[in-house]
């Protein structure tokens, strides 16, 4: 991946006039080839077409593909550049405990397609037969229980939209420019409609014993990944889900069963969920001490920092793209908060000296990706663009400089929710400008 | 007849009410299959690491750990856990957290010693997780802590002696006190993003 020249943009068709750097040449080659083909083909007046005339599409002139008896439909072959990409900026020594990032620059609307939803695993992707899968609930409960998948799917299910973000999203780009694209800087972020049951139903059915305060969620993967979660969050909005965007979870997203803890760092939403144990204190496992903790001043670490605080980023235009020329540029991006709804997004085009309020696109949902748009008349001069979100708790998205004052930004640093600037050169080229 | 009709209606109304009340705070049905704690024993691998509760019977020595390590761990973790093909070093780093280069290892980072036992038992060796018996896990735990200078070379670890090891980073954690940043929504003449 590191050697791969592709910067994760693909060829960026339909990017609203904002093109990846490589696009101009490719488009030119393509029209050249078309013209050559047209003069050879003759017929239907194509050969006599003059510049600007709209040709009859070739697809009008033949039967299409036959309808297969059964098929799981796939995207057009012309969308093959839209892929989830394993991290190539922070290169791990192996690819089982590793991650793969969503191409946010290509996402339309607020829902991430299942095949592009970001991945983070600790021992690769298991393939679990749902007929063999069992969820056990035990520990400080009055009656331990087990559930088969068909037991769980008999409950009246609920479906809810929530974003999910890895606590490590952005960890390569705090004080130095390491990444090119928004896929590399922010692609550990996705959003889906999840279907399942409230965890509170299962815990109520088992009956919480007096003194129950924490819950251990444990996966059926090769790392038996586990996290301690406070009981209040479990009884509030936590779901146990099997559905994702209208179909069963994908194996890489926890098939057949996972926890979904709205607004909290992704790794607590334990995938391939096999066991829930109720206790009176957190377990302090490796995954919540040596990992998923934040360096703080004086050699300390912040622990159980689960909520993903309010954040936003401009996805278009973003790093690696090129604005064709001065004039109207439709800026768009995502805003989200683990603490509630997005109430406002502001955009700057002068590096943060002045800000203007952007338009929020409906629907605006609690703990869900929210789209914002801002129409910018670019004068063709160098600019620095960024977004800043505000959530329903009143929290305003900070800058790296703000965070740097209260935390220690050293090494492998999680919870980067800072304002993220892109520079725009006079050439129209857009680049990472975090530092 | 008449009173019968009324009571049938009343029952229907009550049933309807019960249904909507149930929908508000629960599913109104229960599909869990009752089991006992003993039924979960094979899955019950966690250790409450701050107390050691959940550590099993058994024990292991540093010397045995070194032997098992050479057989099952060295390929990915390297000689003496100095770092190998799949992972970096697993010793050292104690005292490094106050420098700009924090080195995270079981010795420097884990606040409670049983974390290492819990993690090896659930996740290692990565190519064959949950294949070790408890004595082997104790032995490997003893070996890795000896490389970190936290137990002597002749140490024998069991539930009690493992939980008793004092870890250097025991007091290294603070609770989540966010929001820790109070940014203001400045609209004009603001400090730039990169001041």
Task: Give your account of this protein's structure.
The complex is a heterodimer of chains A (435) and B (195). Chain A has helices at residues 23-41, 149-152, 182-186, 199-206, 231-236, 400-406; strands at 19-20, 85-86, 98-101, 119-121, 134-139, 145-148, 158-165, 189-198, 214-219, 226-230, 239-244, 247-248, 258-260, 273-279, 294-296, 300-303, 311-316, 321-322, 327-336, 342-348, 356-357, 359-361, 370-378, 383-391, 422-424, 430-432. Chain A is mostly beta strands and 435 residues long. Chain A has two domains: 116-302, Sulfite Oxidase, Chain A, domain 2 (Alpha-Beta Complex); 307-432, Sandwich (Immunoglobulin-like), CATH 2.60.40. In chain A, strand 11 (239-244) and strand 12 (247-248) form a beta hairpin. Chain B has 195 residues and is mostly helical. Chain B has a domain at 38-164: Cytochrome Bc1 Complex, Chain D, domain 2, CATH 1.10.760. Chain B has helices at residues 2-25, 62-72, 74-77, 106-109, 114-123, 134-147, 159-163; strands spanning 33-34, 59-61, 156-158, 173-175. Chain B has a two-stranded antiparallel ribbon with strand order 2-3. The longest helix of chain B has 24 residues, at 2-25. Chain B is extended, with a radius of gyration of 28 Å. At the A-B interface, strand 5, strand 6, helix 4, strand 14 and strand 16 of A face strand 1, helix 5 and strand 4 of B.
């Amino acid at each position: 991946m590191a050697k791969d020249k592709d910067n994760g943009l693909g060829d960026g068709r339909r990017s609203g006039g904002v093109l990846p750097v490589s696009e101009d040449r490719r488009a030119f080659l393509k029209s050249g080839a078309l013209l050559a083909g047209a003069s050879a083909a003759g017929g239907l007046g194509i050969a006599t077409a003059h510049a600007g005339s709209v040709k009859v599409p070739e697809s009008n002139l033949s039967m299409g593909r036959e309808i297969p008896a059964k098929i799981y439909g796939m995207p057009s072959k012309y969308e093959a550049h839209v892929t989830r990409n394993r991290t190539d900026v922070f290169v791990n020594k192996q690819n089982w405990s590793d991650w793969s990032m969503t191409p946010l620059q290509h996402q339309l609307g607020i829902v991430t397609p299942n095949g592009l939803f970001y991945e983070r695993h600790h021992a690769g992707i298991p393939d679990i037969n749902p007929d063999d899968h069992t969820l056990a609930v035990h520990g400080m409960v009055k009656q331990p229980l087990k559930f088969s998948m068909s037991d769980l799917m008999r409950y009246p299910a609920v479906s809810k939209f929530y974003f999910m973000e890895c606590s490590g999203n952005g960890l390569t780009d705090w004080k130095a420019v390491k990444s090119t694209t928004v896929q590399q800087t922010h692609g550990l972020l996705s959003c889906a409609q999840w279907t399942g049951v409230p965890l509170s139903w299962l815990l109520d059915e088992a009956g919480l014993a007096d003194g129950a305060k924490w819950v251990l969620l444990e996966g059926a993967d090769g790392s038996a990944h586990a996290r301690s979660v406070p009981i209040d969050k479990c009884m509030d909005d936590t779901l146990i889900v099997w559905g994702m965007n209208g179909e069963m979870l994908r194996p890489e997203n926890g098939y057949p069963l996972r926890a979904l803890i709205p607004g909290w760092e992704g790794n607590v939403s334990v995938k391939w969920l096999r066991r829930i144990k109720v206790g009176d204190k957190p377990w302090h496992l490796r995954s919540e001490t040596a990992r998923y903790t934040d360096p703080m001043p004086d050699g300390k670490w912040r622990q159980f920092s689960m909520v993903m605080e309010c954040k936003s980023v401009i996805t278009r235009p973003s790093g690696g793209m090129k604005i064709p020329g001065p004039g109207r540029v439709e800026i768009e991006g995502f805003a989200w908060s683990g603490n509630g709804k997005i109430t406002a997004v502001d955009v700057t085009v002068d590096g943060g000296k002045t800000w203007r309020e952007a338009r929020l696109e409906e629907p605006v949902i609690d703990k869900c990706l929210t789209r914002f748009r801002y129409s910018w008349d670019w004068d063709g001069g160098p600019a620095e663009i960024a977004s800043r979100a505000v959530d329903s708790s009143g929290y305003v998205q900070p800058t790296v400089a703000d965070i740097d004052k209260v935390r220690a930004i050293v090494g492998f640093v999680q919870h980067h929710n800072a304002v993220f600037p892109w520079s725009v050169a006079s050439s129209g080229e857009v680049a990472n400008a975090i530092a | 007849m008449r009173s019968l009709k009324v009571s049938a209606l009343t029952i229907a109304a009550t049933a309807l009410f019960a249904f909507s009340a149930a929908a508000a705070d629960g599913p109104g049905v229960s599909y869990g299959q009752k089991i006992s704690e003993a039924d979960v024993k094979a899955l019950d691998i966690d250790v409450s690491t701050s107390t050691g509760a959940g550590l099993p019977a058994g024990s292991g020595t540093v010397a045995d750990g070194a032997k098992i390590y050479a057989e099952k761990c060295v390929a990915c973790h390297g000689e003496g856990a100095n770092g190998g093909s799949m992972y970096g070093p697993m010793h050292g780093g104690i005292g490094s957290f106050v420098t700009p280069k924090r080195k995270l290892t079981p010795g420097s980072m884990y606040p409670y010693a049983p974390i290492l036992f819990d993690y090896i038992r659930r996740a290692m060796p990565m190519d064959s997780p949950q294949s070790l018996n408890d004595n082997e896990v104790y032995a490997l735990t003893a070996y890795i802590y000896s490389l970190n200078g936290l137990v002597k070379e002749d140490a024998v670890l069991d539930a009690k002696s493992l939980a008793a090891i004092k870890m250097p980073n025991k007091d290294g954690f603070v609770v989540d006190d966010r929001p820790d940043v109070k940014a203001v929504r400045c609209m004009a003449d603001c400090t730039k993003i990169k001041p």
